[in-house]
Write a structure and sequence with these properties.
By secondary structure, the chain is of the alpha+beta class. It contains 4 helices and 7 strands, in the order αβαβββαβββα. The termini are far apart.
Length: 174
């Protein structure tokens, strides 16, 4: 009987620790209003959503980016949020209604106009990124996880370790 009580206590403690980890901030979200007022050269506020174009889920929208003349699709390279964030939580699928807004800082390498449409596409090499409040997630964590910061469960730690390894070995440079 004592063994069963100890096992129940150990399982309870492990579950409690796992839940507590979901409330420890790793990266805080930033405010859209502050971000719009303080845009610098190379900053683009982008939404990841796939309803407009199936192959390019990033969109820079003029109403967020006052320095732009019009909306355009963005192909993201370099230090993309998708390079470290969990795909099951953040990567957008055509059937998903989950989207987030990000501040991407980088350099536009080229613009092109898509054939058969007037859609502009930019290739953006991202140096750094921030997620903008509120954070939306594609799992049941959407209902209880904090919307003001990313936690350990929002990251794909295999991607994070690979990214760190590449940077340490000089492979993550331009």
């Amino acid at each position: 009987m004592k063994v069963i009580k100890k096992m129940i206590m150990i399982v309870f403690l492990l579950l409690t620790m796992l839940i507590i980890l979901d409330f420890i901030p790793v990266k805080f979200a930033i405010s859209i209003d502050d971000t719009k007022m303080n845009l610098k050269e190379g900053d683009y506020i982008c939404i990841n959503e796939s309803k407009i174009h199936l192959e390019i889920p990033w969109i820079a929208i003029k109403r967020f980016n006052k320095h732009l003349d019009h909306d355009f699709l963005v192909r993201v390279y370099g230090n993309s949020p998708y390079g470290t964030l969990s795909a099951k939580e953040f990567e957008v699928l055509p059937i998903s209604d989950i989207s987030n807004v990000y501040l991407l800082n980088g350099e536009v390498k080229r613009f092109e106009k898509e054939e058969n449409s007037n859609i502009l596409i930019a290739d953006l090499y991202v140096n750094k990124w921030q997620i903008i409040y509120p954070i939306n997630r594609a799992s049941f964590r959407q209902f209880y996880a904090p919307k003001s910061y990313l936690t350990v469960y929002d990251y794909d730690w295999i991607k994070v370790i690979k990214s760190m390894w590449k940077k340490a070995n000089g492979d993550g440079l331009k």
